[in-house]
Every structure is written in structure tokens, then in C-alpha cells.
Protein 1
Amino acid sequence: MTALPESLLAYAERGPVWAAWIERLPRLVRELVEEWSLTPDGAAMHGHTALVLPVRTTGGRPAVLKIGWPHPEAEHEALALQHWHGRGAVQLLRADPHRWALLLERLDTEDLVDLWDLDACGIVAGLYRQLHVPAPPQLRLLSEQATRWVGEFGALPKDAPLPRRMVEHARSLAQDFASDPACDGTLVHTDLHFANVLLDRAGDVWRAIDPKPLSGDPHYELAPMLWNRFDEYAGREREAIRDRFFALVDGAELDEDRARDWVIVRMLVNIKDELLTNAAPDRSWTSMMLTITKAVQG
């Protein structure tokens, strides 16, 4: 039997839903390995919400078995990967959505984390152009999320620790996006950043992993590339954030104003979520979001 990492087992402390999933995991692994005729081929790994087990198929092909913690953002991961057919994203070999299980091609462990950030932005901009195709109709709509955010921005208390004008600006932008037909219709990854791009050495190309797909707007994609590796800005935040922003916009041939507006909305959504869901909000996180918002506004 495959041993689960102790760090993954510790996720049971997150609450009863997590504990129940952790308890089910060993049985799920056994069932899927047997049913899909897989051979474990290395130590199990994990991210924030999934177990990843290196395996080989009956033909000896290297692959990974991914079993995710059930949550809405990952509900249509298999559908998105199937829709991309390996173009710009990891190739899906098999899926059981009811068990939140995916069999994926095995890519190299090399990601974009150690690459110069502007070179990485160029690679990600190229992936945007491959991944932004018409969305399948089953996906959740970005416009529906924008509509919800309008109400949630309005629910922020007047004494929330952030400038009220920023909240109202984000609320106005979200309201405009919610009624904009271009807000929906494109398959977007929504969490494309340095660590979610891996090298395919066989083809010498980069591929996206771990999508949280929506039917949305290509301009919605940029924000994670601005808040990840934030510590590297150190002392030149405004200039460095804007350098990344324009590298992405220019590389993907996006509209600068529309991309900027979505960055503002996403930063304020992150702050809103932190303030409304945590009794002791992470001030460093909210400060980071405010810094990015101010930088892209000039």
C-alpha cells in the first residue's frame, strides 16, 4: 500500500470534512490503482488540495494519479483538460469526476519559479494564447461571480481597514463586468502562475497544470502572476509589478485597461474574502493586495 505523506495526513486537522476525505484516501488510492491497472512508481506527493501519486500504466507510460479534495473550484478540472487536449496544458489520460480522480501525463518537476520573472511572464502569455478557447457550456460563469461580488463588496463594513474609495471602485467595475457579454465565453484557467506551469521535456514545451476553470474573460487571468513571488519585488514594488503586468498584457496582446480593471477587482476580492472569513485577517496578505492595486493604477 502507498504511504500517504505525514504533511498530507495533517490536513485532517482542518476540520471534519477534511478529516473524512483523508480517511477515505487510502481506499480510493487502492481502488483506482487496481481498476485502472496502475503500478505505483514513486513516493506520493501533494499540493494544497490534492494527492499526487507517480504511477505507470499497463503499457509502462509514466503518469500521475491525482485525487483531489472535493471543492467547487476543481469541479470541472477534468472537463477543462479534456477540452484543451494537451494543447498548452497537461494531457488528461483518464478521469473519474465522481471520485475527483484524474490520470495525467507525467511532466518534469521543473516549473517557472526559478526563472527570471519577466521571461516566465513571456511563457505564461504564450500559454494564455493557447488556453483561451471557447468554453464548454457546463462551466460556471464569471459574470455570476462578479454579480455576487457586487453584493459582497457592499457588505464590507464602513470601518474595514482599507480605503473605501477602492471598495467602491471595485464594486463599480464588478457591476459593469457582470452585465458585459464579454465577461463569459472563454475557457480560462484562473490560477495560472509560476508554480502551475511544468516542463514537458519530451516536447521541450511548457504546460499548465491545476486549472480552476471558468467560462470567463481572458483579461481575468493576470492577477496570480502579480501576487506570486511577491517577495522578489523588495523595494521596487511599483516598477516591478508594472513590468510583469505589461509583459503579460503585451505578450498575450490583451487590452491594457480591461486587464487592469480585472486585476483591481481580483485584488479587492482577495481582501474582501480575508476580512469577511477570518476573525484575525492576515494583514501582510491584505497589504500585498493593496500594493498591487495601487501599482497597476499607476
Note: The chain has two domains: 6-105, 117-296.
Protein 2
Amino acid sequence: MNMVVADGYTANPGDLSWEPITALGTCTVYDYTKPDEVVPRCKDAEVIITNKVLFTKENLSQLPKLRYLGVLATGYNVVDLEAATKRNVIVTNVPNYCTESVVQMVFAHILELLRNVGHHAESVRQGRWAKQRDFCYWDTPQIELSGKTMGLLGYGAIGKSVASVALTFGMSVIAHDVITPKNQSVSFVDFESLLQQSDILSLHCPLTDSTKEIINKRTLEKMKSSALLINTSRGPLIREQDLADALVNGTIAGAGLDVLVVEPPLQNNFLFQIKNCNITPHIAWASVESRQRLINSAAKNIQAFLKGTPINCVG
């Protein structure tokens, strides 16, 4: 069986092994594949693994041997599912591989905003502590999570895990989702109440027509002036200019973002200049353990396909 990994660098820049996949057949792994390289590189492949390389109606029509297309991610909008289905190509994704990693990043952002660890550590390196009269100092309020309200927009696997950690910090948890499961530890509220009651609002919903720019001037103005906004989900959930204005004007107290509307962002993105906005480069998913689970799960998807019992099918 001939297999191609179209763009493997992001998942594995060299610190992990592709062996779980390469052991299943003849496999060529490319770090990156440009649009005009898709067909030449993949024309003889029966199995293709992609992360962000697009598989459109046009290039799928030029891949006559293709039987299986595995997306090395949870989102699968890089594949034209209708075209793949018409060509009897099985398409799979990898769900729930990065839950632990994303939850950790949510609280990394929260704790940095509340305790400013990076700032204080740098001030110590610069010799400030050694010059202090007192045994300690702090430049920003040191705020506890205990007693605060964590608000979750979306209550899927990641939202549930964030709730669990928040509860161990002594927080109360409220959530809003299109589905309202029964859970005695979490209170489900309408969207307006979520905005108004949350001390920290963390976004964990998919990007759809109804959720695009759901965080905007109107919704930000309903939040507490002391509230924090965390987004490890999808950048376009937030209207960035409105968030920038809200941070500068004190409408909310701070934001921690792992995703932006445009990625990679433009160098002059206005959010970069806002002190109470911490931005990480879409790495919430990218722990070593998470990326290895991604590769292992992709291999299991291929194995199931080869046995005639495909799993995690999306098309």
C-alpha cells in the first residue's frame, strides 16, 4: 500500500516518530506540500494523510488510486467531503486527542493573567528582588481563582475537562451550550447570563455561522469589567477590533488568546500592542504527548480502514 503524509512538519517537526504510520505500508512523509505539488506527489497514493493541505474537487479528481484520506486534526474543512464521497474515498479525522493539552493552556493563560509570573520572574532576573527592602514585592494584584465563576461557552470534551479543573480550584462553573446535559456540578445558563456572571469566560464552541464573531462590542459590554476572556478554540469567534477596544477602554480586564482570525497573523496586528492581552501562537494542542496521540490515533484510523471497519469517519 502506497501512503503519503502531505504536510507532517507541524505535528512532528522531528521530535517524534512516524513509525506507527510508516509500519503500515510504503510511506513518504513531506514536511510541506504546496498546492501545485499535491497531484504530482499524491497521484499514486491509496492513503493520504493531511493536516492543512487542501483536497479540493479539482485535485481529488486527479487522484485515481486514492481510497482513504485521513485528516491529522479534529477539524476537516480542508477536504471537499462531497467530492470525496462521490469518489468513494473514506475521510476520517482524529477527535479528542488534545483535550489535556488544551485544558492546560487554558489555565496557563488564566494564571498568567492573574499572577503575572513571567513579568515577576523577569524582574528578579534583572536584579530587582536583590535590591528590595522587604522580603517580597509585587507589581500587579495577586488574584485567587477560588470563589470566582468560570463561564464556558461550549460544553464538549474540552469544556467538560476545563470545568473539572476549575472545580478543583474552588471555582463555581456555569456553561452555555446548544445541548444542555444534566450535571450537578455545572449550572447551565442562557448566553446573556453567561456573559454577565462569568469572572472568566473560556470559549470552547465550534466555528459556525451562528458563532462567528459571537464575542463583539455588544457582548463584551455585558461582561464584568474585572472579567477575563480566554480563547483556545477558533480565532473568528471574536471580532478582534472590538476586543482590542474593550481591553483598552477597560470594558474587560484582560484576554488570553491562543488563536487569531488570521494565522499566521500580520505583523501589525493591533492586539500585539495591548499589555493586558497575552497571545500564544496556536500551541494549545501541541504538547509532545498530544502530538504523539495524534499520530498514534491516525495510525489506528488507517488500521481500522484496512480491516474494513473504518472509524472516526466524517465523510
Note: The CA atoms of residues 47 and 58 lie 18 Å apart.
Protein 3
Amino acid sequence: MADGLTVAVTGPTGDLGIAIVSALERSRSVKLIRGMARRPFDPAERGWRKTEYRQGDVTDAASVRDLVAGADVVVHLAFAILTASDATRELNVAGSRLVFEEAAIAGAERICYASSVAAYGFHHDNPDWLKEDVPARGSPEHPYSQQKAEVEGFLADTVRRHPRTVAYVFRPCIVAGPEARTMVEEIPYYRVEEAMPAPVARLVRAFPVLKPVIPDPGTSFQLVHEDDVARAFLAGVRGVGEPGPYNLAGDGVLTIEDVATALGWYSVPVPRPIVEATAEVVTRLPVVPDSVAWIHSVRKPVLMRTDRARRLLRWRPEHTSKATLQAMVAAHRAEVAAR
């Protein structure tokens, strides 16, 4: 296992990127980190001392070549999630393919890719608990899912053609935590609340009867803490275990009712036939808003076993799904209070 690694990271300023770069900064095995993002950022603002900033785009070959030149390991995180659609194929699919190819040509020893549980697809014939030997088929009606699965295929093809480079593919469930708050911040109520005049928002928060109600389709899901995902990536960067896919999830399962309870809101059950009917209607619409496609993600639970990561990476989630939810909500409340 090599020391003094140079690690190139795409998407270092996203929810997951911040946690991963912070973990790399603390590792004695890492000498230098190069982070590339579309928008400027100052590593010193986060106390990062090993990290160099490169402004660039994963769809630009020159930017990618500059980033990966001389890197021992390339960590690929840059990906449009909530807006995934045909419009993001250039970034998500073509950009990922370019990063993989240039990393292998440059002689990187390892590529660590942030895939997703969504890569398995939301298929009714999937097993109730997913292991890494289940094919990552994606769901055509869910662009993010389909693109994640497609990119995994490109990565597998890259390492077949460049056998000196190996790949670690991490499939986390929903990532959450103090920095990774997208899940709660994208609930429509928060968008509405942000647009309210301050006195009205305070009034709404003060009266329980005015608390929002969010629909609960009853589908179980898992959360994984940003720091637990970062520890798995660090293991891959250091070459622990063996290459291949790894499921990442915190212990325990949740439903939307648990989210509503943590937020101090209410939830109302949504009958399964209504969920299925809505998803079928969405599938047949000629033009579907990006966010609406996510209705398909509640049709079939996607729960994962993490035995492989525990055995080969010696990885254990330090945070349960419930504790991760609480940490995310606490951080969000603190930020709202500060504003």
C-alpha cells in the first residue's frame, strides 16, 4: 500500500466531496489533493492544506488531463443528481467517460467512482435486499438511475482496456449529515418557506397546526452518513481490500414518517395503488420535469446489504440511518436559526 499519494478529485465542493476531501486531508497516506470544480473555491476556507484548486469542467478534455496528470488515484464525484435528464448526459455520462479514459491513459493506479443504489434500478424483480452481484440495470424512466448504471458500464470497459488501472465503485444509499442536507432542503415546503416574508415564516413555525404534512408512500429506505461514505472512499484510495462494487448504508431502515417526526411535521399515508398509478401516468407524459421522475424511486424499496464492504474494506458505519437523519435535521435547523 503506497504512501504519499497524489489524489485528483472531481466535484470536491459538493455534499459528498467536502466530506471525502476532508478525510483525504487527514490521511497520512495522502500527500497532495487536486480538486476541480466549475466554480472557484478556496481550500483554505475549510482549513484544507493539502488541496490545490483547479477550475475546470469534466466535459473539457484539457481540464481533465491537467487534473489527472501524475495522479496515483482519481476520485470521480462530479454528477448532476436532482436535475438528471437528457440535458445532463453531457456532464454525467460523457464527462464521466472522459474522466475514466484520461485517468487510465495518465497511468492512475485506481479510480474511485461515486455511483449510487439507484444504479440497481427500481425493478420489481430485484431482490428485497440488494447485494453487489445483482446487476446494475438502472431504470430507463428514471434518468439519474439509468445514467448511473450506464456510467458504471463505461468504467468497467475502461479498466478492461487499461488493466494497469483498477476501479472501486461505491454505491451509497441516500447520503446525509451535517454537510449533506440536500434530502431535507429539497422537500417542497422548505422552498416555499424560504420565499415567505420573515414574520410569516416565524408565525408558521410557532403554531403546530400550521406545520406541513408530507405524503408517506410507506417505502422503506436507508441513509448513510457523509463521514461513513468518506471512510469507505479513503479505503479505496489507499487500495484496501480489492477493487469492485461496494454497497454503503447505515444500519436500520426509515420511512417518510420518520423524516416527518424528526422535523416535527406530520405525515399522511399514501395508498400503494395511488403511487403506482401516478408513476404510470408520469411514465407516459411526453415531457416530464426532472424532479417528477423521482416518483419511480418509491415504487420499489432499494435496500442494500453491506457485507462486502465490511469484510473486504473493514468498513463499519459509525452512524445508524436514524442518527444520520437526526444529524442532518439538527444541522439544518441550526442554519435556519442562524439566518
Note: The first strand starts at residue 5 and ends at 10.
Protein 4
Amino acid sequence: MDRVFFSVFLREKVVMSMEILEQVYMGNRLFDYIAAFSALIFGLLFVKIIILSIVRRLKKLAEKTSTKFDDFVIKILEKIGLPVLYISCFYLSAKMLKIPSEADALINVLEMVVITFFSAHVVVLFANWSINSYLAKKQHDPTVVRSLDGMLWVVKLLIWTLAVIILLDNLGYKVSTLIAGLGIGGIAVAIAAQALLRDFFSYFSIVFDHPFKIGDFIIIGDFMGTVEYIGIKTTRIRSLGGELVIFSNTDLTDSRVRNYRLMEKRRVLFHIGVTYQTPLNKLKETPKIIEQAIKNAKDVAFDRAHFFSYGDFSLIFEVVYFVLSPDYNKYMDIQQEINFRIKEEFEKQGIEFAYPTQTLFVTKQ
């Protein structure tokens, strides 16, 4: 008897529960709300426990490798992948319910906004990683570091502008007229600022082609000096006299620039004149004296020393050697040392340097 009563009671409770679950609120059964909420909780727990643990293990494995790209991928998963999965849980659970058309349209708009935002964010992170990877190789060059750091903001602006245009187009707004207007305006600005744009592109040519860098000693035509600043429009050079010479970047890229920092070794050619009264045996010894004086100096490579020609008032020897350094001050120190040694040896050998003289011969009639 008690068993029958309990069965009837239980059946009534089940029927009552089913009736409650079948009740409709705002177009959905209570059962549908429970199912959507359960799916949301299950999805969030799955992402929180399973996916997050996988990402953490991948992060530990990436830390053991020497490459940086896997660290970048893990960063994408943490900053983009996980938030996308969390938002997807809410989106899928909401789609399990019947919602008004206005709310459904709003959800679809939010979906496109989220997709556009995270897609643009991925592109920005990739651009940032690429530029930073290049900067890691160019830390010794402040010009490149400053240029790429500033260019990153331009790249980000272009990416987000393009993302907004694509989003507006997907939302049904006509952006073709706006794009055409921007194109016409861009052409007008380009024509008006033609000189500025030429200097701007010349700037990037200087930065990436490396004809010279800050600190280089260069010669452009009749001007020479040390590069102090490379800007978007102009480059500043400190001349030997101390004044600051300012060139437009276009002038520099259109000119022949001689960069002495890139010179691996310096070729030195000079002449020495001795008097016509020098005996032949001492003339023959002179190239050997000069050669020995040069070879005794450090960081030089002797090339040749020859009796070159008969001058107006001297017998001329031509000498060539190489300084194994581009440093001008070091070259002058070496040349000075060589001159001292040649002077010393000439005095020992009784060889006289020539200087402008005239001999007057008088014939008595």
C-alpha cells in the first residue's frame, strides 16, 4: 500500500516538474533556459580547465626552445584565443534560445564587432612582433630603432582604419563613396606635398639601405663632416669647421656620397723629393730606406716606393702604402711616425730633401 502511494506521489511530482519545465517565458521554455545556462557553464569550465591547462603546458614547452616564434604563438593563444573561446560560449548558449529579432540583430552586430576586433588585434600583434624581431638585430643603430618604432604606430593606425572600414561595410554601410573621397583627397595632398613626400621616402631609403649612419664621416660634393641627425625631412652634418650643415634627404639620395666609415683600409700616396746632388748609390738606397720606415710602423701594409721622375728642382720618389684602419686620426699618427723615421734615416745617410731653388750660371765673355 505504501509502495503504491509512493509511486503515485512520485509520478505526480514528475508530471508537475515537466509541466513547470514546459512553461514558456519570453518565447522559450524553462527547460530551454536551463539547457542554455548548463551549456554556458559547461563551456566556460571546459575552457577554464582543459584549454587553459593545455596552453600552460605549451607555454612551458615554448620556454625551453631557443626560437621566439613559438612564444609569439602562445601569446596569441593567451591574448586572443582564450577570450574568443569565452565569448563563443556566451554566443552559442544565446543562440540556443529564441530571442526577438531586434536582440538577435544586436547579437549578430556584436559578433561582427568582436571578430573584426580580434582579427585586427592578431594582425597588430604580428606586425609588432615582426618589427621588434628586426629591432633586436638593429639595437646598435639608433636611427633604425627610432624609425621602426615610429613606423609601428603608422602600421597600427592603418590596420585599425582598414578594420573599421571592413566592419562598416559588413554592417551594410556604403563605404565606397568614403573611400573614393579619401582617394581623391590623398592624390591632392600628394601633389601639394610632393617635395615633402620625396624627402619622406628618401628618409626610409637612408634608414633601410644604410648608405650612412649617425656618427659616419661623409663627403657630399664640396661639403664634409660627421652625421649628427637623420630626420624625416632633413639630415644634419657637423662640418670640420664646427658649423651645422643641413641637407634635405632627397639631396643626399640624389648625390654621390663618400662614406669613410665603410672604408676597410686607407690607401696613402705621397712624394718625397731629394736634391739633384744626391749620389747614385744613395738614390738606389732611398726606396729601401722608405720601405723599412713604413714596415716598422704598426697596422700598415707597404705597397711600393720608386724613383718616380725628374722634377724642376728635385728627384721625386713616389710612395704607396695602406693603413689598415678607416680612422683618420690613426692614419695621421702613422704618417707622422713614418715621416720622422724617414727624416732620421736621411740625416744618417746624408741625403738632403729638395726645396725650390734656382741656380744662376754666369758666363764671362
Note: The radius of gyration is 41 Å.
